[in-house]
Amino acid sequence: MTDEVASGDPAGGLPSPADAPPPPAERASTADWLAVGAGALGAMMATLDISIVNSSLPTIQGEIGASGTEGTWIATAYLVAEIVIIPLSGWLERVFGLRTFLLIAASLFIAFSMLCGFSHTLPMMIVGRVGQGFTGGALIPTAMTIVATRLPRSQQPVGNAMFGCTVILGPVTGPVLGGWLTENISWHYAFFINLPVGMALITLLLVAMPHQRPKFDLVAQADWFGIFGLAMALGGLTVVLEEGEREQWFSSSVICWLAAMSVIGMAFVAIGQIRATRPVIRLALLRDPQFSAVVIMGIAVGMVIYGTSYVIPQFLSTIAGYNSLQSGEIVLLSGIPSLLMMPFTPLMVRRIPIRVSVTIGMAILAFSAWLETGITPLSAGGDFAHSQLLRGVGTIMTMMFLNQAAIRSVPPEQASDAAGLYNAARNLGGSFALAGIAVIQDQRVWLHSRRMEESLSANSVMVQDYMAQQSQALGGTATALQSLGRTIQIQALTMTYIDLFWILAVGVVCVSPLILLLRPLPQGGKPVAAH
């Protein structure tokens, strides 16, 4: 062999490294994209059902004989169960295999949706909603796992954008879809709609996902301390937060037992972290400052997304007199920016520095909540239009990059653990928001009512003149007093909603400094994992 040939000289007939064509870019197959689509559809169905009952809640409560207090469990039962199952999804996926696990989850989700649709009592509805939460919660982190394992790094921004948009659109389209079905057909179809969607999901899973042999030997090796601990800790904590105010906190034996159960559950989780070879939830991931920051900011964003999608319909229904469909249409406004920005999100992830995007997004989220602190008892849906559109922009600029940072903060083999922990944190934020709303609403409505009543002295000439005019107009003193009571209640409730929006705005601002812990993603070119 000549020196020229050995050295790779072109004259020797072999191309030099400089002249050699670059290797072809790794591309996902059609089956890979169908799998990603199946994951996104499952996540969309699961997140949609979190809020689909929000605008039709008064109608459902009336038909199944539930009070306003009991009716909140129709919304929160789903979140409680979902929060428990999401961190367990990684382990269940390894036991059954991804396709089998998703097929079981999708099939049971359809069954529990039918149970909700046929419900005629509150216990029946709650059982159905808990079942929906357990099975639907499994569909969310597995979507991120599919993106991490089926797509090459260069195409993951597209897959993450698909997943992120479904997570964003689900909570905002839920109220309008549920409202439309309630007003035009029946609230039952807010659950029956999952039948055709679920069948489409099952078809995609059968076509696109390869069968994997189950590993039932993992059951014996499972982190049972962690499994039972998570169920006890997260379930007990959520119920304590939800029911604590109504049960007078620790003066109630039920709350005391649930709080003790939560503490014991946390201890079990800690034991599992030490003893298990592979803990059911890998809390060690939180040692990474970036991942910890992403989780905390995910909680805050979850509070804004789920909190506002619950509060706004309630305000429009109780104060402005909107029906279910009208309330849902206002909530849907925040989804318009998501639809418009969706085609550009992969490019945004590649080109915009993560700190810049998340900073802008968090600032917009805080500003949108602050705008809503100016509402009055005369406010209507149009008064929420600008804040809702801004919230949509802020959410997509924040969530797209947080999803990307969460999935890239860990090696691919730990993607399912990271996805479960991150999604559980985001939904835990939603649970905190709903529980906090119940607590704050009870306290602040009472406080604002008492303060207004104390300011209205019976000896005041102005009050006496007002009551005289109202008595004459309404036909009696008793009717005038009832009218005054309703006015005070409406004012107190409006002031309480203002308090809630203030808290959401301040909460976002408080976690914003964590943006400094985010590591920059590569600009342009092929993204790399951030370990």
Walkthrough of the structure:
By secondary structure, the chain is mainly α. The protein has one domain: MFS general substrate transporter like domains (Growth Hormone, Chain: A, Up-down Bundle), CATH 1.20.1250.20. It is built from 23 helices and no strands. It has helices at residues 3-6, 30-51, 57-64, 68-85, 89-96, 98-117, 122-137, 139-150, 156-184, 189-192, 194-208, 217-220, 224-243, 253-275, 289-318, 324-332, 336-341, 345-351, 354-371, 385-408, 415-455, 461-474, 477-511. The longest helix has 41 residues, at 415-455. It is globular, with a radius of gyration of 26 Å. The two termini are 45 Å apart. The model is unreliable at 1-25 and 524-531 (pLDDT under 50).
Largest beta-sheet characterization: none
The CATH architecture name reads Up-down Bundle
Mean pLDDT: 78
CATH superfamily: MFS general substrate transporter like domains
Features:
Growth Hormone, Chain: A, disordered N terminus, mainly alpha
What's a quick, concise take on this entry?
This protein is an all-alpha fold and 531 residues long. Helix content is 73%, strand content 0%.
Architecture blueprint of SSEs:
Blueprint (H helix, E strand, L loop, with lengths): L2 H4 L23 H22 L5 H8 L3 H18 L3 H8 L1 H20 L4 H16 L1 H12 L5 H29 L4 H4 L1 H15 L8 H4 L3 H20 L9 H23 L13 H30 L5 H9 L3 H6 L3 H7 L2 H18 L13 H24 L6 H41 L5 H14 L2 H35 L20
Helix pairs in contact: 2-7, 2-8, 2-9, 2-11, 3-4, 4-7, 4-13, 4-21, 5-6, 6-7, 6-11, 8-9, 8-21, 9-15, 9-16, 9-18, 9-20, 13-14, 13-21, 15-16, 15-20, 15-21, 15-23, 19-20, 19-23, 20-21, 21-23, 22-23
